[in-house]
Model the fold of this input.
Amino acid sequence: MRSVRYVFIFFALFAVSAQAARKPAAAPADKSAECLACHNDASLAKDVDGKAVSLHVDEGKFKASIHGSMFTCTDCHKDVKGFPHDPAPAKVECATCHADEAAAYQSSVHGQAAAAGNKEVATCTSCHGSPHEVVPVSDPASPVAHQNVPKTCGTCHSQKFVMESNGISSAPFYSYQESVHGKAVAAGSDKAAVCTDCHGSHEILSAANPKSSILSSMFRTPAPSATSR
Done:
């Protein structure tokens, strides 16, 4: 009789464990919800040198972004421990996760200009958009999706006075627009060459740089002629 009782208890426990295994795991708590309770307010801002700087984070766009789908706010803003934020949180550096891309940028014409104090030069967010709204390059909405690259580069490179004040001509951008490549992209082609196909993306170098993908012939060392050997 005792053995029968043990068999019954065994099957009862087995049934309970099997039911527990079938039960879906509880969804992890949304750790960003507390932050977004305030930052989803479009009017949220702070004063910086007399100018209102928005602190708004669009909840829908953040959750649809590559960062929002993988991380919580404090994964990047690690120094935020509570509210109010005192002292103010430190600026998040993209290099914390994107070290290779950051190193390439630092050696580029953009990175070198930024290091020299140029406030108009392109930074990570200039091309990729807000870190709270970054979407994969495969997403047609991405500023760096293939078909959007000319428009994104043109944000700066089409501005004549901005470019000329930095000793650079805006003419190449307009020449591209009139080229077979530019017209094809404007017509919807996803195959025609865009800026980054020739210049690269993060490590864009001067045409005079020996490592540049567009090293100009005027800077190349001519091969020795037969008479000079």
Observations:
- Residues 6-16, 18-29 have pLDDT under 50 and may be disordered.
- Strands lie at 45-48, 51-54.
- Residues 163 and 218 are 22 Å apart (CA to CA).
- The chain has twelve helices and two strands.
